[in-house]
Amino acid sequence: MAQKTYRKSQLIAFDNVAAGHDGVLSDPSGAVVIKPCSQAEVGFYHSVAKEEHSRFATFIPTFMGTLELNSEPDPAAAVACTAIMNPTEAGQSITESPHAIPNAPVVEKAWAPSNGGKIKTNLAIVLENVAAAFKNPNILDVKLGARLWDDNAPPAKRIKLDKVAEETTSKSLGFRIAGMRTWQGAAASAGSDGSDGILKDGYRLYDKHYGRTLTSETIRQGFEDYFLLERGGVIAKKGPLRTVVKRFIEDLVELKSALENEESRMYSASLLFVYEGNRDALVDALAREKEEPANGVNGDEAPEEEDDEQHVPAVQGLKLIDFAHAEWTPGQGPDENLLHGLRCTIEVLEGLLET
């Protein structure tokens, strides 16, 4: 396998983040997400590789490895990310973790991200960018759980997060909208001064404060905005959007079933929804699905060797993300804190299909 190498100057800020996550980077192709993380999160991704978690594994982004930051500054260092298959070609000395995934990338002498003051770490995780398969992805981040802190959280953090839950739908519904980006089109951005949330790239951004204004009575409005519906509107009986929502529901039901058969605790994990926001591209993707095997983002396999132009465009995808406070807990039963939020999310989406 050819060695994958990035220069420090090539890594760029990741601009498809729907909610927070300061310090997230990507490569020039946009194929990966490089996120500052804790060792606990890395350990959780490694643990998912075990056979007993194979069903759950289809619902998380593909784990590609970690980036380790070098404490010794080296301004002349050219290599920021090097696959461990053939490290000598880059002239770097790379130490493989005893639990490393084969061919996983490792970084030496990399940058030290500020992480917006949120995370102090010398470690980053490399994941597939689920949104990369779409032309104009509409992205929604839903934070799960009424309890948002793990057993190691100090009292002050528990109080703070309990207050957030109490003041939002986290407490009542077990989830809240943490942020989203929806494609409005280039014309919309041309006529906007930014006060309506429409960015120069044609997307409307809904930050964390938007989700915190919603209540259990108005939470449906958040999903109406995500699917670009009128207030109180429902999904048409026929049309591409109905297919998208039905697939999201099917994925959520399958994820719920998988978690009901796991013994775990995943505090502050999120659901990442992505669907094609460009209507023409969405219609084309659905049409091409009928002609070729689906190339889904929840585990469907594409042919091993295939030109990019031949790939079937993505329609929608659902992943569970953010595992800084996740662990397997044998003997303690399923994670009802997480499952309550999943069930309520399913109910809201099902309501959009009612006529």
In a few lines, what is going on in this structure?
Helix content is 28%, strand content 19%.
Strand order in space, largest sheet: 2-3-4-8-5
How helix-rich are the residues, as a percent range?
Answer: 25-40%
Number of helices: 10
Using the alpha-carbon principal axes, give the shape.
globular
What does this structure look like?
The structure is a single chain. The protein is an alpha+beta fold. 28% of the residues lie in helices and 19% in strands. The chain is built from ten helices and 15 strands. It has helices spanning 39-48, 54-57, 155-166, 169-173, 186-190, 208-212, 219-226, 240-260, 279-291, 336-352; strands at residues 5-6, 12-13, 25-26, 32-36, 63-68, 81-83, 105-106, 123-128, 137-144, 175-183, 203-206, 264-266, 270-276, 316-321, 326-328. The strands form four sheets. The chain has a five-stranded antiparallel sheet with strand order 2-3-4-8-5, with helices on one face. A five-stranded antiparallel sheet has the order 11-10-9-13-14. A three-stranded antiparallel sheet has the order 1-6-7, with no helix packed on it. A hairpin with a 5-residue loop joins strand 3 (25-26) and strand 4 (32-36). The longest helix is centred in the C-terminal third of the chain and has 21 residues, at 240-260. It is globular and about 50 Å long. The N and C termini lie far apart (53 Å). Residues 69-117 have low confidence and may be disordered.
